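Mods, move this if it's the wrong board.
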Amino acid sequence: MLSGVSWITIVKMSENATSQLLARIVGKCPICKLPPRRHAWSQLASTICGDPSFQESLANFFQLFRTHEWMRLRAYQGFDPMRDAVVVYAVRCPDGGALVLAVRSNFDLYAPDELYGCEIIDAKASDALCTQLENWEDI
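Not the wrong board. C-alpha cells:
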C-alpha cells in the first residue's frame, strides 16, 4: 500500500485516464458514427520521441504504422516516464473493425496529448489484430 492506495487502484486510475483520453480523441467513431461508449482499447506499441537520438527509430515506427504492419510494430515497447512518447492504441468497435491511433503522450503534464495518426481497419484485419492483443479495457 502506498498511503492507503493500492497499486491495483493506481493502475485502474491510469487505465481510466487512458479511456477518457481515447474517448476525447475519438469523439465519434468513424465506423459506427457513435461515441465510443461500447468500444474497448488495448495498447499496441510505444516509443520515445522528441530526442534526436531516436529519430531513425521513430521514422521506422511511423513507417510500420502507415503500412499497417501491426505485429512488427508491437516490437516497439519503449517508454521513459521522463520523456515524451508516441503510444499506439487499438480501439475495437463493436460493429466490427477498429481504429489504430498514434498518440503523442507528453512528459509535461500541462501539455495536451496529440493525435498523430488514425488508421481505420476493416473487420477481418481488426479480428487478426485484436486476437494478438491482451488487456482490453472498456472506454
